[in-house]
């Protein structure tokens, strides 16, 4: 029932996203024209919101279904690892950044604040008002990734218990919820605002307007640049680790 409801919500918002996306495309190619800049900005933000909700709903349904197929219980969304349920952790250096001894318990709002980069001081007030929070893709790589991942991946699957793997999966899930998801959400809305600002600045004439446009163009490039590619790799690796810990492999990876 839970999977069916999540999928239904996902398909509903996917349909909304499709309609809004078509209107946006028709406006971009000038088959129709949205005269009000505020209406256009609202439309782009609506497209983003519908996309995030639809992908989230469908993704939750697929993830829960996958967990059911492999015979391991899915981690609860609100679960928080505590010191009483964690396996013993070996001392010594590990390849991944190490978490606190009590597991990741950071407030998502704190993570979001830590991953906001400042615009240049001369443009800061304008950028905050027009573009919103500036995402910092490098900050997540500095956060404490669950140490249990490196510990369990360093053994053979037969040496890991299922309960250890499940606890580690919950730590990875908490890390993704508190550290990775806020950055992805910020990037989506920020990029919509960048595209709008770039379109509005094409007729820039004064030195101040030209400076703002140059900053916007550079930020658009940064949204798909080197830091973003590293973030994507980190995101993909954490998903791989989460899947391994929720499978019969018990966190180990194929050789």
Explain what the structure shows:
- This protein has 255 residues and is mainly α.
- The protein contains nine helices and two strands.
- It has helices at 2-28, 37-70, 108-114, 124-130, 139-142, 147-153, 162-200, 207-222, 226-245, and strands at 116-117, 134-135.
- It has a two-stranded antiparallel ribbon.
- Helix 2 (37-70) runs antiparallel to helix 7 and helix 7 packs antiparallel against helix 9 (226-245).
- The longest helix is centred in the last third of the chain and has 39 residues, at 162-200.
- The chain is elongated.
- The two termini are 37 Å apart.
Outline type: elongated
Instruction: List the uncertain runs.
Output: 66-112
- Strands, count: 2
- Main β-sheet description: 2 strands, antiparallel
How many individual helices? 9
- Which band does the percent of strand residues land in? under 5%
* Helical content class: 55-70%
Mean of all residue-level pLDDT scores: 75
CA radius of gyration: 21 Å
Our measurement of the CA-to-CA distance between the termini, rounded to an integer number of angstroms, reads 37 Å
* Helix-strand sequence: HHHEHEHHHHH
Order of strands, widest sheet: 1-2
Which structural class matches the secondary elements?
A: mainly alpha
């Amino acid at each position: 029932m839970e999977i069916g409801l999540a999928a239904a919500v996902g398909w509903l918002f996917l349909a909304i996203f499709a309609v809004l996306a078509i209107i946006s495309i028709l406006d971009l190619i000038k088959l129709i024209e949205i005269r009000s800049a505020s209406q256009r900005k609202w439309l782009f933000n609506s497209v983003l919101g519908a996309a995030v909700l639809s992908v989230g709903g469908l993704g939750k349904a697929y993830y829960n279904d996958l967990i059911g197929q492999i015979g391991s219980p899915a981690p609860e969304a609100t679960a928080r690892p505590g010191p009483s349920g964690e396996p013993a952790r070996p001392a010594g250096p590990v390849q991944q950044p190490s978490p606190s001894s009590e597991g990741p318990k950071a407030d998502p709002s704190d993570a979001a604040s830590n991953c906001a980069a400042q615009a240049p001081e001369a443009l800061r007030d304008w950028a905050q008002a027009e573009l919103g929070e500036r995402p910092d893709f490098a900050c997540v790589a500095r956060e404490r990734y669950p140490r249990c991942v490196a510990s369990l991946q360093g053994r053979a699957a037969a040496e890991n218990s299922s309960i250890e793997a499940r606890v580690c999966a919950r730590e990875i899930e908490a890390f993704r919820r508190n550290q990775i998801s806020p950055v992805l959400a910020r990037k989506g809305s920020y990029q919509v605002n960048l595209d709008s600002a770039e379109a509005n600045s094409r007729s820039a004439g004064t030195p101040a307007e030209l400076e703002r446009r140059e900053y916007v163009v550079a930020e658009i490039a940064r949204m798909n640049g080197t830091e973003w590619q590293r973030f994507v790799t980190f995101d993909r690796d954490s998903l791989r680790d989460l899947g391994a810990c929720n499978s019969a492999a018990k966190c180990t990876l194929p050789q």
